[in-house]
């Protein structure tokens, strides 16, 4: 099985910029143990821009997926926990529903991974596919990023639906 790190495409410049919500959604609560600290539904405002096109993936200040992307991901991970997040552009009277997935952190980084100057942060993680617990979408435990890792079959499902703004980076396997 192949795995990819999923990110927003850097050439996709029209992704909305979130202006609030940093108190309502704390990074420390983005775990399966603490997600109850986050409301089931959150309203966030975005910076106004006339040509705003809502991307299907947002990565800053936290990972969000569009409703369409969420429906696809739920077919692969039916028990995935997530919170509804409404993004509102007040000036242009536009709104879009997103989901904040609470993904498991899986310890599947191989000892073959390249470390940053011998410290604990990885530059190039190498995945041991036997330790992924057969999950289709997850975060890497111990990696200095909150970008999700997805399987090839989930990536193909996203790409077949022509989702906007997705960038995939193939991961090295042990």
Strands side by side in the biggest sheet: 7-11-12-1-13
Broad structural category = mainly beta
The proportion of residues forming helix, as a percent range, comes to 10-25%
Measured between the Cα atoms of the first and last residue, the distance is 11 Å
Please report the number of helical segments: 2
What's the number of extended β-strand segments? 14
Low-confidence stretches: none
Write up what this structure looks like.
This protein is 11% helix and 33% strand. The protein is mainly beta and 174 residues long. The strands form 4 sheets. Strands 7-11-12-1-13 form a 5-stranded mixed beta sheet. It has a 5-stranded mixed beta sheet with strand order 2-5-6-4-3. A hairpin with a 5-residue loop joins strand 3 and strand 4.
List the helices and strands and how they pair.
Layout: E1 3-8, E2 41-45, E3 57-58, E4 64-66, H1 67-76, E5 81-89, E6 94-102, E7 105-106, E8 114-115, E9 122-124, E10 126-127, E11 137-140, E12 149-151, H2 152-160, E13 166-170, E14 172-173
Parallel strand pairs: 2-5, 7-11, 10-14
Antiparallel strand pairs: 1-12, 1-13, 3-4, 4-6, 5-6, 8-9, 11-12
């Amino acid at each position: 099985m192949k795995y990819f790190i999923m990110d927003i495409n850097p050439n996709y410049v029209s992704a909305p910029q979130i202006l609030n919500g940093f108190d309502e959604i704390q990074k420390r609560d983005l775990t399966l143990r603490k997600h109850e600290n986050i409301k089931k539904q959150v309203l966030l405002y975005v910076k106004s821009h006339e040509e705003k096109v809502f991307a299907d993936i947002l990565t800053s200040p936290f990972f969000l997926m569009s409703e369409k992307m969420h429906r696809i991901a739920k077919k692969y991970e039916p028990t995935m926990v997530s919170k509804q997040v409404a993004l509102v552009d007040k000036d242009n009277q536009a709104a879009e529903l997103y989901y904040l997935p609470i993904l498991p952190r899986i310890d599947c980084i191989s000892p073959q991974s390249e470390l940053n100057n011998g410290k604990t942060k990885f530059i190039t993680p190498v995945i041991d596919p036997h330790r992924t617990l057969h999950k289709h979408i997850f975060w890497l435990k111990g990696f200095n990023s909150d970008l999700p890792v997805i399987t090839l079959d989930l990536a193909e499902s996203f790409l077949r639906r022509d989702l906007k703004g997705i960038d995939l980076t193939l991961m090295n396997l042990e």
